[in-house]
What does this fold into?
Amino acid sequence: MFLGKYEHTLDEKYRLIIPTKFRKAIDNFVITCGLDNCLFLYPMDEWMKISLALKEISTTKKDNRAFTRKFFSSAIEVTLDNQGRFTLPLPLREYARLNKEVVIIGVSNRIEIWAKDLWINYEKEITKSYEEAAEQIVDVEI
It folds into this structure.
């Protein structure tokens, strides 16, 4: 399970270091375009679960086709180097608007990578509706 928020920077070769706590759970993984202009990073076992689930959705619906095309065509398999880094390819950097400052967050079964400025704005926005969302979607005692 991935938890927490970490701030990092891309180096001059666009390499990103994965936080040590997250590295313990992943050797290789898949990274792809996520939602809200962030990147989703999945350990291989989670990627396989998601892939199987997405195979079951109808391809007769235009939105389903569009989503799966973008999700899978932007995905790349990655292995970390000895220092826990990997290079972010240009199309993914552009999609997530990543320049230098990056926020890496744990979201249960995945890691999300955000441009710091986008994360700050997003976090402000969602903080306003956090309790309202809890009333609508959370059906467990927290």
